[in-house]
Amino acid sequence: MKPLRQLSSKTLVLDQDNIDTDQIIPARFLTTTSRDGLAAAAFADWRFDEQGRPKADSPLNAPTAQTCEILVAGDNFGCGSSREHAVWALMQFGFRVVISAKIADIFRANALKNGLLAIEVDRDTQRWLLAHPGAELNIDVTECRLDLPGNGAGTELWSVTFELDPFARTCLLEGVDALGYLLAQSDAIAEFEQRREAA
Fold first, then answer.
1. Is residue 96 within 8 Å of residue 117, measured between CB atoms?
2. CATH of the domain at 47
3. pLDDT in tens, 123-175
4. 99: which strand partners?
5. Within 10 Å of residue 117's Cβ, how many Cβ atoms?
6. pTM for this model (two decimals)
7. Is residue 1 part of a domain?
8. How far apart are CA 109 and CA 117, in angstroms?
9. Coil, strand or helix: which one is 95?
């Protein structure tokens, strides 16, 4: 995983509530344990018609979609069945961050374990983001801060903070998952075991 410390990107907005994991990656694509190739499966039924042709009206097919690393969605994003493939597909598509006022608990846990930053914001911030697709945002993982452009009320830049579990933040900053973090502590673990055996 790549470390995620700071990120500046435009947003891709999906202004819909209750986007579930089967919409993020339909069940027919859950035949692999590899992350490779899952970008094509991300939101497949929203992006392609029954003949496999790209849907012109899908924001996910817009020319700028592949450059957006931040996905903004309606309430209850990632609901439905627990599948890490949904997180993998989003990351393979190019997203590093998902923002909503409410993100399903299991999806959020899976996201953070796999290096996808899932941010919950207040309703006013969510409404502003949904109403301004393509807004350029700056995210600081160390400070747990989201910087937004001018809000039209004479403010050039405004910021909101978000909650992030300290261990998840450490893993994001270092670009490791839980296993990678533990393996990096192998010397300290071995030293502890030696001291315990000698006691």
1. yes
2. 3.20.19.10
3. 999 999 999 999 999 999 999 999 998 755 555 778 999 999 999 999 999 99
4. 72, 119
5. 23
6. 0.90
7. no
8. 10
9. coil
